[in-house]
């Protein structure tokens, strides 16, 4: 049991989190997935009946995180945790005009991503430290290219992801050398076809959508899963922020 590496993925029920869960399970890892959506977790339980634990949890709530990590610690036994992926967030970045945004809605964006990353990282550290010096553990935070560039009326989402970036390099300095901490900044990642079955959509992108990306296509959740796999095993990489956006953020866009 201890020879099999273990990973925790927050926001595991849909989109990038769902892809991460399936990807790492396919690599032979034990996977613990946290999400608020019980229906989505039931689908994952049916798909992955072995080497997996799925827990309903709002990772922005301290007591729920404590309860979930107690269950994960029992599931792990004496085995170490190899990686935590702080992926949970409010997917929709648009919050409307600043003058109309309530404090509670603002806090919703911050709690779902930034506060959740803090709470889950704090809870995971004792489990990650079990690895010892022979195999360094890691935390991967899912940030966003919106941490460094913005569209109108996305400031709450952008602030939460900018906080994730800052938390990442600060944690890397504070938790090393036993734990490495890095971030992935996804660009446009199409997730509508990676939802639970009742909300899944067929997707087709316009030529101009694909043309925004030098690689010639919109991103897929699997692209992020592969980036996280790299960071989970890149033993000399910490405190970094990896843009996974098909080159979109380096391409100049001109209006017609």
From TrEMBL:
Compositional bias, Basic and acidic residues, is annotated for 194-212
Superkingdom field: Bacteria
Q: Name one Pfam family in it.
A: adh_short_C2
What are the protein's GO molecular function terms?
oxidoreductase activity
Question: Which region ranges are annotated with the description Disordered?
Answer: 194-219
Q: Which UniProt keywords apply?
A: Oxidoreductase
User: Where do transmembrane segments lie in this chain?
Assistant: none
Q: Which InterPro entries match?
A: NAD(P)-bd_dom_sf, Sc_DH/Rdtase_CS, SDR_fam
What protein family is recorded? Belongs to the short-chain dehydrogenases/reductases (SDR) family.
Name by which UniProt lists this protein: SDR family oxidoreductase
Provide the species name. Answer: Qipengyuania oceanensis
